[in-house]
Design brief:
about 375 residues, alpha/beta, Rossmann fold, 2 domains, 7-stranded parallel β-sheet, 6-stranded parallel β-sheet, 13 strands, elongated
């Protein structure tokens, strides 16, 4: 599709980029919107974790200190002057941290606001939404939608569920997992935060190793819990079997190295890293939290365990290690499920439909006025 200066533009306002699902969501939108008839402008305070080539291709604009209360106002005024030269038709806040800034920009430019919320908001978080300009709140799953309606009292008709989408390499053959000539690798990935439940993954790893299994474990990601997790692996006596990979641009290389993926979260929205693992044909062991039930059909597209339960996680790991053929069947079924329901093309199309509906409504209001 030909993109010209007349093509409507969407401002994707993000927080500081890191290697996590919500940042991948922004990048996928930015890459795909031009093929769907929209120009995408990504603005954020810091994009150093995005590969330089991708930053150039997407023309990501970095404004350090953009969301800081004092100096950020000066940066924000500069950004506004630049946006006024080619105003976006829609302002889309990508994370809760961007809502306040996105709201201010939308007010100044008199543009509709869209907000995406990927996960449960913290208990003490106060969600402030300006209903005069906010036309849509997008969530990635039913569980987060219900959380926003019940806990934060958002009107039901304001909230739309658009499942996250991942790249599905449908025509790329995958290397078989759990090959007898290779030491099995069980891995997990995500921001190393307390709510992600990684200590229980390490506890399960200790049980599997104690049972005499020859297995390697992989923890991909960075975050505030990294030091504690490394210490725990030493205390459990499993550090020779655990590899930490904190310095990644994305999780795909780590996922490719795994035979089995584990999501040990204590609280979870949809789990985009889990979807990426499924798209790679990796059998998934996940905890029974959030909207994991929307994706995992136990025994078909993955296995489930209670949260905060290392023993149950270890049992599921051993089940798959003992039956590689079953693990492969589950991985293949998972790949087909993600390809059909959680592909990036569907996510983008549903998002574009929401944009177009907002623009059509705005045009009608302008005509009526």
């Amino acid at each position: 599709m030909a993109i010209t200066a007349e093509t409507p533009q969407v401002l994707l306002l993000a927080g500081q980029f890191s290697v996590r699902g919500q940042c991948a969501y922004t990048l996928r939108l930015a890459e795909s919107l031009p093929n769907a008839g929209f120009r995408a402008l990504v603005v954020c305070p810091d994009a150093r974790t995005v590969p330089a080539e991708k930053r150039r291709k997407l023309q990501i604009r970095e404004y350090p200190h953009l969301m800081r209360p004092l100096v950020g106002r000066v940066v924000l005024e500069l950004l506004l002057r630049q946006l006024a030269l080619d105003p976006p038709e829609i302002v889309h806040a990508q994370t809760p941290s961007a809502i306040r800034t996105a709201t201010w920009i939308a007010r100044q430019l008199e543009r509709p606001l869209v907000i995406t919320i990927h996960d449960y908001l913290p208990e003490r978080y106060t969600l402030r939404i300006d209903r005069r300009i906010c036309r849509r709140v997008i969530t990635v799953c039913d569980a987060v939608r219900d959380h926003l309606i019940e806990r934060h009292r958002l009107p039901r008709d304001l909230v739309t569920v658009i499942p996250g989408g991942v790249a599905c390499r449908r025509d790329k053959p995958l290397e078989p997992i759990l090959q007898p000539t290779k030491t099995p690798v069980i891995g997990t990935a995500g921001p190393l935060e307390a709510v992600k439940g990684f200590p229980y993954f390490l506890g399960a790893a200790a049980r599997v190793i104690a049972a005499g299994r020859d297995v390697e474990f992989l923890v991909a990601g960075a975050g505030p819990e990294e030091r504690n997790l490394r210490r725990l692996s030493r205390e459990l006596g499993i550090s020779p079997h655990v590899t930490f990979l904190p310095n990644l641009y994305d999780f795909l290389p780590a996922i490719e190295a795994m035979d089995i993926f584990c999501l040990p979260s204590l609280q979870q929205g949809l789990g985009s890293v889990m979807l990426e693992a499924m798209a790679f044909g990796r059998p998934v062991i996940a905890t029974k939290v959030g909207s994991v039930f929307e994706v995992i059909r136990p025994g078909e597209t993955g296995l489930l365990a209670p949260p905060s339960d290392s023993a149950q996680l270890a049992e599921r790991m051993v089940e798959l290690l003992d039956d590689p053929a079953r693990a492969r069947r589950i991985g293949q079924a998972a790949r087909e499920e993600v390809s059909a329901q959680y592909n990036v093309e569907r996510m983008v199309q549903l998002t574009v439909d929401a944009y177009q509906g907002i623009l059509d409504d705005s045009a009608l209001l302008t005509a009526a006025g």
